Every structure is written in C-alpha cells, then in structure tokens.
Amino acid sequence: MIKKIAIIIICCQFGILKAQQDLSEFTIVDNTKSTSILIDKKDAKVVEIASQIFAEDVFKISDKKISVITKKTNQSHVIIAGTIGKNKYIDALISSGKINVSELKGQWERYAIQVVNSPLKGIDKALVVVGSDRRGTAYGILELSRMIGVSPWEWWADVTPEKKNEISLSIKSVVSKVPSVKYRGVFLNDEDWGLQRWAALNYEPETGDIGPKTYAKIFELLLRLRANTIWPAMHSSTKPFYSYPKNKEIADNYAIVIGTSHAEPMLSNINTEWDHETMGEYRYDTNSETIKGLFKKRVKETSKYEGIYTTGMRGEHDSPMIVGEDDTDAQVQLLEKVITDQRNILKKETKKNPNKIPQAFVPYKEVLKYYQSGLKLPEDITLVWTDDNYGYIRQLSNLEEQKRPGGAGVYYHTSYWGRPHDYLWLNSTNPVLMWEEMSKAYEFKSRNIWILNCGDIKPHEYNIELFLDMAWNMGDFKKSSSVKSHTIQWAAREFGKNTSEEITDLLFENNRLAFIRRPEFMAWSQVEPVTKSGETELTQFHYGDEVDARINTYQHLVETTEKLYGKINENRKAAFYQLVYYPVIGASKLNQKWLYSFKNKFTAKQGRESANYFGEQSIKAYQRIKKETDYYNKTLQNGKWDHIMTMAPRFLPVFSEPALYHTKNDEASIGLALEGYQMEVNHDIVNSYADVLPVFNSYTNNKYFVDLFLKGHGNITWKAIPKADWIKISETEGALSNLSGNAEKRLWVHIDWDKVPQGENKKEAPLGHDFQLIPPSYKVNSAIDFVSGGKTITIGISAFNPKLKELETYSGFVEDKGFISIDAENFSRKEDGKEAKWDIFEGIGYSNNVITALPRSAKSVIDLKTVQKESPLLEYDFYAFNFGEADVRLQAIPTHAFYAQSGVRCAVAIDDAEPVIVDFQTFGRSDAWKQNVLKNASIKSVKQTITQAGKHTLKIWMVDSGVMLDKILIDLGGWKPSYMFPKETYKK
Fold it and tell me: Where does the signal sequence lie (predicted)?
C-alpha cells in the first residue's frame, strides 16, 4: 500500500481567513507526479531560500524532487508562494478576486495558506502561500514543512523525517495572527567551549571560525522557528560578525535582523574590535571622538540592512563603563551624552529621523541603577529589560513606561558565565519559570524585542523553541499547564505519541531536580574568584538523608531514560540522544558524581569500608559523563557534532574528577549509624547519646534509617531483633563484606500502629523543643538489638501514640519533632480578595507546584487593616503539641519586584495575631541574592507566638501580586539544618 501523509492545519494558532465547509486536498508528490513551487524572481531572496528548504524537505521524505520555478509550466498543480506587491502571480490572484488579503496587507510578518482552484490560466489547482512581507512569506512556506512532518530541528538535532511515498495535505484556508512579539531571537554567547570550536574545526574549517556557512545554518533554524533576530557571537575566540562581509549579506538573504548585546553599542563588537594600541582607552569622557569614529563606520556599512542599534554604553566585554568621576550623577550625564551622540550619528549617516530606526537600550547590571537614577531616554528607543542572569527579570515597565512609543522588550538567559556560578554546560533553566517570567513581561507590555541568551544553541533546543513559540503566539500559553501541553506536543512530533507523555514526565522531573539545585552548582563552589569545592548543605543524617534520596531519584531518571531510548524508532535515536538522553544522563551523572563524593567523605570519617564503594561510584559517574561526551562528539552521526559538546566549560572545579577518601583495612567489625546523628553509635560507651532513633509519630507515620556498616577488612554477619511486635524492619539479617557494594546496608524502621499500645490520652501532649524529651506517659518505648560477632548493640525506639480525641477525625498538618512542614499549594482554605485571588502554577518549585496571587496588575496593599479586609487569603490548619515562640519560615521563588517602587511581599499571622509583612526582595548582587539564585529559593522568617497546644491556623495574605510561595515551615525549635524543608507533616 502507498503510504500517505494527510495533515490538517489545526487552527489553534491561526485565525480563519474565510469560512470553508470542506477541507481542500492538495498532493505535493505521489507515485506519478510532483508539484513545483512557483515564485517571482523579483521577490525577496528569503522567499527563494525558504522554497528551496521546503523542496529539500520534500525530497528527504519522499526521495522525489520538486522544483522551484519562476515561470509557469504546464503542470496542473503548483504551489504559488510570494509576497504581496512583490510577486506578479500573487498580485494577479488578488486583482482577480481569487484570494482576499485584506487582513494581511500592511501587516507585520503574517501569511495565509489556502487552496485555490483555477488560479491562473493553465493551472487547475494551486496551494497558495501569501505573505504580508518577506518574512511572512518565508514563515508560510516553512509552515508547509511542519505540516508534512519536518521538525525545525531536522538538521540541528538530526530529527530525521519519516519516509513516505506520497505527500498530500488536507487544508483549511487560514491566516496567521500578528506575532505577539515584533523582534524575536537568540544571542549566541560564551561560544568558546562548543559552537566556535565546532565551526572552526569541523563544520567550517575553511574559515576557521563561526562564519557565513555556519550562520546560514543558524539563520535557517531561526526561520524554521519563526524567529527574525540574532545577536551574533561576540567573544574574543570569534572574529567580529562584520569582519566577514558575507555575514551581513547572508543575514539579509535570510531576512534576519542583526542586533547586539548590552556591551556592544551601535552594532560594534567592542570585545574584539577595540584595539588599545591604535585606538587608546575605551572611555567616553576622554576618548569620545575615536569611539564615535567606530560607531560611524558601523552605521555606514549597516544602514541598508535591517538592524537594531543598541544605544548607551558599558565597559569592555561585561564590565561597567569607565568615567572620570565615580558617582552616579556623572555616570548618568555621560550616558545621556553617549545616547545623544549616537542618535546624531544615526541621523547623519542614514539620512533618517532616529525615531524611524529600531534602537534598544538594555539596562543590564549597573546600567539599571543609572536608569533608576533618572537617566533620560528618548521615547522611541525600546527599553530591553533583563533578568538577573539566573532567570528572574529585575524590573518591568510601569504604567507610564508602557505608553512609550518605543515599547519594551526582554533579554533573558538560559546560559550564563559569571558569579555566583556559571551554568554553561546543560540547559538547567526550568521552562515553566521561563514561561512565568516571559508571560509576566508580556502582560507588562514588553512586546517589542525578546532575545534569549542560549549559549551554544546545544543543548538548549527545547527552551529555544518554547521561548520563540511564546514570542510568536503568547495566546497559546495562557496557563502554566500550557508548558506541559507544549512539551507533550513537542515530544510527540519528535519521537511519536506513544512515548510523548513518558518523555515529558522525565523532562519535568529533571527540571524539578535542577530547580532545586542546578547540576553546575553541585560542588558548592563559586566563581569570580573561582573557589574550590565546598561543603554541601544537603544533610546526610536528617530527614531520610537528602544526599541518598537525590542519588536514588537521579538513578530512576537514568533507568527511565535508558529504557525510553530502546523504544525510540531508529531514525529518531540520534535526535533523542541530543534532545533528551545526553542532557538527562549528563545532569544525573554530574549530580551522582558529587553526591557519591559527599557520601565517600562522610563515611570515610566514620571508618566505613563503604566509603571505598561510594568513591568508586563517584568515579564511575565522572567516567560516564566522559564516555557520553566522547560519543556525542566522535561517534554520533559519524562525527557531525565533533567539538560541539564540552563537559567542562571553563574547567571549573565542579567538572573535575573527584578526589577520594579511603579507609584503613583493620580487623573486621560492625558499626551502626542512626538517622538524626552525625556520628556513629559508640557501643563502648554506656548511655551513648546516639543510640536512639528519632521519635516515631503516629500522626505523621514516619520511617527512619539505620546504617549497618563494615569497619575493617573481612566478612561479618548480623541480625536485627525487635523487642516488640509493633517494630518493623526492612531486613532482619544479612552479611557485610568488602565486596563492592556489600560493605553497608541501610535498614528502614517503621511502626505497625495497629499494634502499638496507646499512650496517655489528653488534649495537650507537650513534646518540648527536643522531640526526644516527650514525657514518658505520652510515648511507648522499646528497642532493637543488633547482634554481630558476639556483640549486641541496642537501639532505642520510642513511639508517640496518645490517640488524642481532637485528632481522631482531624485531617491537616501536625507537628512532628518540633516543626510543621507544609507545601504551600496545599492550603486548607483560600479566600479571594477585592482585586486578586490565589492560583497555582504547575511545574515549578521544589514540589512542582507553587501558589501565587493573580492578576499581576492587582494593586499592592500595604496597610495591614486593608490587607485583612481586601487581600486574598490563604489558611493552613495545623495542630501543635508545643506552644510558645514559633519561627515561621516561608520559601518563595526569588523573583524581583515588578517596578522599582514595589516589593515582593506577603503578610503572615498565626490565628488572630497582628499580621507581619514579609519581603523577599533582594537588591543588586548581594550575598542574599547569590544564595537565592543558587538554590532558586528565597527564605524569610517571622516570629509568631502559639499560645497553647492544639489546633491553629496560619494565615497568609497577598501584599504584592505575583509572589510565588513554595514551602512553609513552622519551627517550634525542633527543625535541624537541612537544604530543603522536611517533607510535609500531614495527617490524612
């Protein structure tokens, strides 16, 4: 049977051009014939380029060629593609009334696709693609490529199309919407470690650099992704973009707009174009004429091409501008002069009014301070707001700024080189966070320019597409859940529907773990200056062992990824490797390298033989990263991507081979270590303080671990003998040996609550700030004997089981070991406010959900009486066994205030206490900000008083909309230091 593609354009992203009852069929190729693409040679070059790309896509699927022609032939079926006013065939269809372009004419980058019967003499049927401008036409043609099953990543991620004998489309007439964002694109940055080396040594050796050949493939990708702008690579490893004359010509051929970063004014690459020997010092207060000379030269050579001129000025590369007077007023005045001079140059060299020339001002780092200090910026210049380099936009347009004719935009990072630490290797920016920040920017009218710093392009493929899809049509991304829907659709397109949801779940869990701590931050080191690896904040002896739990979670991701790889069709395995396999395995193994290293060091201090095993696992994780990176570069697609992937950008300590700790081979003996204690049980000391497990609480149904481990060289056997039938252990006997992986056994102890004797039944059961100090009448005590080599070590077990009447039918949060832990989305009740209400964002935060007050346009409410009356309210019911002073810790996503004058605040109270305002805002690059972005969490605490044991309610009111609450911890003195708050203490 003949295989066939029959594809319907679904109108979720498009508006109807005119109603049609029936779908129109159009065959592109079959066993007997193929169509051609009819264009006008007078149309823009990008129309021809897009047509050739589509023709090649058809060939990749069908092995049949279709021609791109400029004159009619005797074919009965053709594709006619062209721009209004630039294509005589399109214009003839318009004048004859065969197509109606009233919605398109004069619009920015729009297109229509429809089937027209008898369009021109001698043609029976035509598939017509008409664009409002040159890019609109190109996007329309490449939409046909999507429709026949060609991924935008066909070349850049080797998403090989499915082979078909026949390609036929079922089409409704549609017209695209106006793009949500006018200029949409990427910034190639920090290219030293991948893209530049790959281009120079592999793809474009004749240039030895990122040159015209490389840029042509990048521009093709941008067109396929419906982007139109690029900030070219600008590090010193790469020659300046304009040093290759063909670069600007290729850009124009592909209709790509050239812009430059915050440190590259007027399309000039200061980092590589400024020559100190011949040009002097790069400072405007003493050397302005030379600097203006560079600006004039660049404007002259670019004036006939589409470009966005970055105005203002910073220092060389990524440094502040040098001025004679070190005060803000002087810096502001000088920057205003720079902008005035730049606009005069634009006017003189282009013979146009500057308000007709696209310009951008990027208040990045210290420049934001100058802008906030009163810098006067011409209204027609686009304000391009920036994130803080870690995904959190520092400021957006207020109501007055939203009225500026030049509008606003955003420069956003998913790759960064700088303090507190780089993340240049993998894409570790949570897509839902990016959606949240960009949808916020869109809501605040930042719709003129969106630029994504995507580093080397790879492995940022998915986030690039998501970013550009949002910029193309933000209407498809109204909710946080839209990101998951987008990921499922993306995975189905690339790998098939049968695995799309599994792949999406895998990626979302990988994103969640990276949100808790990016892989590149796992050494607890910093940069500027570079420091050695530090001590982890993850605890190994509280709350189930955070290190071990993270190891196991990542191991599950590894196993899931490997299993999925086996399900992927052969023609998509290379794509799966690049888009899913390598990023997930890389993140998993970098984590496991450090996590096992932490365990190696911790257990070696206790003399455990298992330290050697943990060291082996750390080395194996490092070797796996090396193996996969070598495969990516050398073997994948026969070396197509050689040099693109570097496993150690900048050779920072986090990427190095781990240092190991070893133990001495003494005579074999057994050791025990319990959850809750940093050191082992010392069974030679009577009444050792480390010989009792934390108290088991019937209301939270805990389990705790006991580590049995070998000390010295040899073999030993052990038995665990519970002294009560209500004590349950995961294993009761076994052996330890020096064989790899057998030197340690972690046992889990839990309680059969149906068999535990009931403790004293009273309303109050004070536990004390140390949960070990429960009065004897409230708990039941027993023990476990661990027997080995003729020695018995007794571990105490205490079960808190008073069966309080108040808690018999209670469902809510309950104190455990002196604290109550809550995931913020699990409120007991919520009340809407006068202008706002609480809503949940899915796919972000430590638990994958956060709660926030929306809409973001709601006014801040600061007066506490008004807060209590008008603000949306969250209530969390909890039961406390202790009373007295409590430390209420709130963990929020570390976003910044919308405007310079607003905050990131909420108000907190327990019961009927006076609310206390909490502000999560940080300023500049403070130590608090650094810690916040390293763990994607801002934690603030307030003191509250719990007057008596029993039921209580924590209340949280909105002060500023947009605050995203993640976790809550009410600490009555029992919480022990840990990286994350303990799991929820919830009684069902």
Answer: none
For residue 491, what pLDDT is reported? Answer: 98
For residue 152, tell me if it sits in a domain: yes
On whether both 711 and 641 belong to a single domain, the answer is no
Q: Which CATH number do you get for residue 94?
A: 3.30.379.10
Measured between alpha carbons, how far is 640 from 634 in angstroms, rounded to an integer? 8
Dihedral (C-alpha) 47, 51, 54, 59: value to the nearest 10 degrees? -160
The arrangement of strands across the sheet holding 704-711 comes to 669-674, 704-711, 744-751, 727-729
- Calpha distance 626→725 (Å, rounded): 50
CATH number where 925 lies: 2.60.120.1620
Q: In this structure, is residue 981 part of a structural domain?
A: yes
pLDDT above 70: residue 12 = no
Question: Averaged over 898-909, what is the pLDDT?
Answer: 91
Is residue 265 located within the same domain as residue 408?
yes
pLDDT(333) > 60: yes
State how far the Cα of 917 lies from the Cα of 60, in Å rounded to an integer: 61
The token pair that represents 947 in the structure block? 């007057």
Average pLDDT value for residue range 730-756: 95
pLDDT for the residue numbered 778: 66
Q: Give the CATH number, domain containing residue 391.
A: 3.20.20.520
- Model confidence at 110, pLDDT cuts 50, 70, 90, reads very high
CA gap 826, 265 in Å, rounded: 49
Q: How far apart are CA 97 and CA 106, in angstroms?
A: 18
Structural domain contains residue 866: yes
**pLDDT for residue 752:** 97
Q: What is the Cα–Cα distance from 511 to 394, expressed in whole angstroms?
A: 23
**Domain termination site, one of 780, 807, 834:** 807
Query: Is this structure's pTM higher than 0.90?
Result: yes
Q: Are residues 686 and 634 in the same domain?
A: no
Say if residue 649 is in the same domain as residue 735. no
CB atoms within 10 A of CB 304: 10
Rounded distance, CA 965 to CA 415, Å? 25
**356 and 255 in one domain?**
yes
Q: Is the dihedral of CA 458, 460, 465, 467 positive or negative?
A: negative
Which range of residues forms the domain containing residue 647? 516-655
How many residues appear in the chain? 988
Q: For residue 987, what pLDDT band results from cuts at 50, 70 and 90? A: confident
Tell whether the model's pLDDT for residue 773 goes beyond 80: no
Name the 3-class secondary structure at 810: coil
Q: What's the rounded Cα separation, in Å, for the pair 423 and 391?
A: 12
| DSSP designation for 864 | H
Q: In the predicted model, what is the mean pLDDT of the chain?
A: 93
972 shares a domain with 922: yes
Question: Residue 589: is its pLDDT beyond 90?
Answer: yes
Q: What share of the chain is helix, strand, coil (3-state, %, to 5)?
A: 35, 25, 45
Question: Which of these three, 428, 454, 478, is where a domain ends?
Answer: 478
CATH number at residue 563: 1.20.58.2150
What total number of domains does the chain contain?
5
For residue 475, give both structure tokens.
């209407």
Report, in angstroms and rounded to the nearest whole number, the Rg of the chain calculated over CA atoms: 32
According to the model, what pLDDT value does residue 919 have? 96
Mean pLDDT (whole number) for 646-653: 97
